[in-house]
Design brief:
Number of helices: 11
Number of domains: 3
Strand order of the largest sheet: 10-9-8-11-13-12
Helix content: 25-40%
Number of strands: 13
Structural class: alpha/beta
Strand content: 15-25%
Shape: globular
CATH superfamily of the largest domain: P-loop containing nucleotide triphosphate hydrolases
Radius of gyration: 24 Å
């Protein structure tokens, strides 16, 4: 390819792909492929060995056979920047550019595998229906994965129109804020249009992934942000506010006011995947208290000089937060230990130590009352 054609190709890619997040850093990363006449493109959908990729020539269908390794963490994903052949039948994706961020959860199987839900994401939007009872533990779980991905989390309380009293909605926001330190918490009614301008402004730059359970109103929210009925919407059950999977694939769409949105299917299972840093970020106040404990390996149970227990007894730390922290820590350690032999050995030693300590405590108790 001549210098002039390469320059034209770069200019064309910038003008056509800029709405999808293309920038100079992506162009630099793609430079080695330019001389081969290959095209850059953003993956907008992946489905059964095929994918839709938006390129400077428009949206094309391409085969993913060359980017389907045995490692599920390296398969092509919605949000990836792909290296696409300029023509041919079928077209093939030859490679994809190194990811800046990746939202990963553990698979529902018992194998030690992660599943990438979205790549190159700047904002992770956790949609939670205000019309049903809040599950703060699930919100914390989503946030741990979001922080671990490298994205900025945002919690959106959808269906605000189902909460007629402003004071009640305010209390819901406060409850979520206690579970989401450092995270914006917004309220939105897609039906009435309330709060959409604020959310659109937050999502107006970069790429956002929309997460949440079925029935959280993700598809309705996506349609409201897009200004068109692009995503199918289904009614939720009155008995529990849950819905069926309206969205069945992950779809990437350019927002009219700027930014890119990836809508995802409702997630029943949200397992952690090597999210130790993310868990620490969600429970930052507990991590800070732990630094003041007398022992660096304090389990925050009965150890002397435990700053976490002191805060709990003083009413400064809710019991629910500590229990949720412990639960996510244990789960994350279990997931990591599946692939880390050294950590497995350390955990076994810790379990034996705690078992011995518990046995000694019970024997001491029996001796005291015998």
């Amino acid at each position: 390819m001549s210098a002039s054609s390469a320059s034209f190709s770069t200019f064309t890619a910038f003008s056509a792909l800029a709405p999808y997040g293309w920038d100079e850093d992506w162009a630099d990363a793609f430079a080695p492929y330019t001389a081969e006449g290959l095209l850059p493109g953003r993956v907008v959908r992946v489905d059964r060995g095929q994918c839709d990729v938006v390129t400077a020539d428009g949206t094309v269908r391409a085969d993913t056979a060359f980017v389907t390794p045995h490692d599920p963490m390296r398969v092509l994903c919605t949000g990836d920047w792909a290296v696409v052949e300029p023509g041919g039948t079928p077209r093939y994706v030859r490679a994809y550019l190194p990811r800046r961020t990746a939202f990963v959860r553990s698979t529902s199987s018992k194998r030690s595998e992660g599943q990438i839900l979205a790549a190159n994401v700047d904002h992770a939007v956790v949609a939670v229906s205000a019309g049903v009872e809040l599950d703060l533990g699930r919100i914390e779980r989503f946030l741990a994965l979001a922080w671990e991905s490298g994205a900025q989390p945002v919690v959106v309380l959808t269906k605000a129109d189902l909460v007629p009293e402003p004071a009640t909605l305010g209390h819901l926001v406060q409850d979520v804020e206690t579970a989401a330190p450092g995270v914006p918490v917004l309220t939105v009614s897609a039906e009435r249009g309330d709060g959409l301008d604020v959310l659109a402004a937050v999502l107006g730059t970069g790429t956002s992934v929309l997460l949440g359970q079925s029935g959280a109103g993700k598809s309705t929210l996506a349609n409201a942000l897009l200004g068109a009925d692009v995503m199918d919407v289904q009614a939720v059950r009155d008995i529990d506010g849950k819905g069926r999977h309206t969205t069945t694939t992950r779809n990437l769409l350019a927002l009219p006011g700027g930014g890119v949105l990836i809508d995802t299917p409702g997630l029943r299972g949200v397992g952690l995947w090597d999210a130790g840093t993310g868990v620490g970020q969600v429970f930052a106040e507990i991590e800070e208290l732990a630094e003041e404990c007398r022992f660096h390996d304090c389990g925050h149970e009965s150890e002397p000089g435990c700053a976490v227990r002191a805060a709990l007894e003083a009413g400064e730390l809710p019991e629910r937060r500590l229990e949720s922290y412990r639960k996510l820590q244990r789960e994350n350690q279990y997931i990591v230990a599946k692939t880390d032999a050294r950590l497995r050995q350390e955990l076994r030693k810790e379990w034996k130590r705690r078992g011995a300590a518990g046995k000694a405590a019970m024997e001491a108790k029996r001796g005291r009352y015998s």
